[in-house]
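**User:** Here is a favour to ask of a fellow structure person. Please take any protein you like and set down a full record of it. No explanation is needed for now; the record alone will do.

**Assistant:**
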Amino acid sequence: MIWLPDGSMLVTKKSGVFYHVQNGTKTEIKNVPKVYVRGQGGLLDIALHPDFAKNGGIYMIFASDEEEGTGGHTKLIRAKLLNRGLTQIESLYKYH
């Protein structure tokens, strides 16, 4: 989880679900990439862009099965959080 400048928070769950929690109400974030959940793999971590208040940028690390071979591979993405959904999703790093 991570706190936002407005006092609300973003919460990730290993299962791949991603929430915005504000005033005790949680809203699921849409358009989260497919997450490979097995063993220790799943939706792992989130960080805000240093200028999040202006650009809505976030970084996420999760397990992905989109590469060749079997099992999960660590993937880092950058995206914009807009209207309770992820947009402009960009893959920055994949470890196979």
